[in-house]
Amino acid sequence: MKIEVLYPEVCNLFGDLMNVEYLARCADAEVIRTSLKETPRFVSEKVDLVYMGSVTERGQELARDAFAPHLGALKKRTAQGGVTLITGNALEIFGEYITDDDVGDIPMLGLFPTHAERHLTRRFNGMFLGKFEDITIVGFKSQFGHSYGKVQRGLFEVTRGTGLNPNEKWEGIRENNLMATYLIGPLLVMNPHFTKYLLKLLGVSEPRLVFEEASLDAYNQRVLDFSDPKRGFEY
Amino acid sequence: MDKREPEKRGGVRFWLALWAAKLSVPVLKLTRHNGTHFPGSLAMRICPDFLRRLSKPEKIVAVTGTNGKTTSTNLICGMLRARGLRVLSNTLGSNMYAGVATALMEGVSVFNRCHSDMAVLEVDERSARYIFAHVKPQFLAVTNITRDSIQRNAHQEYIFDLVNLGISYTPETVLILNADDPVSSFLGETFGGGEGAFPNRRVYYGIADQGQDAFLPGVPDFSVCPKCGGKPEFSYRLYRTIGQFHCPKCGTSSKERDYTGLRLDFENRRLTVEDRSGARFDCPLPSDSIFNAYNTMMIVALFGEMGYSRQETARLLGEAQITDRRFTLETAGGINLYTYAAKGQNGSAISSVFEYLAKDPSKKEVVVMLYEHFGDTLTWLYESDFEYLDQENISKIILTGNRYLDCELRMKLAGIPAEKIVCLEDETRVPEYVDTEGIESVYFLHDVYCMEKTMRCRQLVKKRILGGDGHEN
User: Fold this and answer.
1) Which residues of chain A are within 8 Å of residue B381 when distances are taken between CB atoms?
2) Measured between CB atoms, does B380 come within 8 Å of chain A?
3) Is B195 helix (H, G, I), strand (E, B) or coil?
4) Single pTM value for the model
5) B108 and B31 belong to one structural domain
6) Cβ separation of A211 and B223 shorter than 8 Å?
7) ipTM of this predicted complex?
8) Residue % of chain B over a pLDDT of 90
9) CATH number of residue A116's parent domain
């Protein structure tokens, strides 16, 4: 199995890269790290999973510029059922534009019919509890804004916390097997059932996770904690 | 706001604010409340530009940066007080706007007359823009800008911009910058260099190559040239991404230093410094960690720029002590029992401490006491190099705190053998699991919120080692 991480020199915030390390260890996969100056490998060869993680605001523009020539290849890959995972504010790179309080509208790649509204003076932090099919998802959000627009299919249904924006009952965007979510950090480490789903999607018939027991213990404790109605969720 | 708006004094609201704030101090003491934040906060509610109208000492030093600002501020204060100066500081309180207002308010009379010689202020990076709009330090010393708690600080570029915004309010301030930090060394310039350097005079400190084998960070604090986006190369690193770099693509490189630590002698706690004139002199090191060596170099540069002689700086450093909120050592039955602040939520800080203790050759056990507070995320666990703890001379790692299960998983993913890991939901049971024989040291790593629990825990371990009441016979 091949996993390609796009632009790890900038898309490396909040421990997001551990998603790839974890998945690679679970599937004994090869990890390809593609820098801003390189052509993504998925453009010219079979790559099982393409991944992009959280990034700074300046980094969003660097990643946009680097990826723009390959957007067509991603669309083709997605139409053919290729698996892509995008986490954190990398999601915004694939929307139409970002509106920044100071700078105005910053054009993005336009893959999703969304735009992000960025407020650098108001950081949004929150916890997330939701559903992916029958799997309970837990996660964290820490971002400068939200995305708005008519999304055909969300990724995670919100149980508690905030979706793509405060009025949206779905978190993230899904197009075929392209999954994008604002959730940050070690999403796959924290969600063993979802990780197993992903591994199956990637062709692993009977997935086993590394340190599965420890992962499940931590997950179960967190699900309980996040399900506690007394627990605050946003701050 | 006009950045050069003249200082205003007095006004009915100001006097009310000052007297209310003054009055609140004894009331807080009587009711046993911490009074390091509230008086300033109260004053600003009554008079929003209280800080501007407040009299201030003629000389002000501000210290900011991600890691080391509390330690450095304490050391600077201690050194100046040892010289007999009346120094105001917020070392025991908040480093945000209200904390700074409280500290400065305590230095004036009810008639707003300042009776202190100096102020040494620890300034939160995010608050720099608000504080420096009204407080104009002669010197701003910066330790570093690294990854930090993401909820408040997001990422380094964000913090860089906020500190720079603060600096833009105070063009006369001399910046004392860490030349070996590829991020904060560019403060006083627009991000990525180029045009728009600020008028502030800049002084750089750093440490020469010591031939150290610095561990590689899993997620580096600096991986892209701020000017061209190229891949920077380091000629050496002393820890994490602190060292000298250059970008092969555009030629951007580390700043030239005015004060260089030429030789570190941790064994004898000595530091040989060369200043910009080429003069060399020896200084004591208050600690044997590389990150505190950088704090010491910052202080040497600051005192040099404040006009202190090299001998005087060295003498004052010799008397300086690291605050016990950050580091303490007790010995019981020949075993060193260290407490070390290892800020959770801050992957860079905790990894530096991991590297420090991993390089201590003693046979040791490590107690990790980290507590999740409301709103904390776990993301920092995966920005921290727990891999550094996979050392032969670390025989046991005891995990406690309310996210011990997450810590356990992280430790296992870091390659720590499962048989070395002990997980305890109840921290009071930690002493039962610390060995009392066959080890030379125990490190208690704690976050800033659980000092008391950590001290209690160490006391119980000490008692167990010594038997009886915990006192050496």
Assistant:
1) 15, 186
2) yes
3) coil
4) 0.92
5) yes
6) no
7) 0.93
8) 67
9) 3.40.50.880
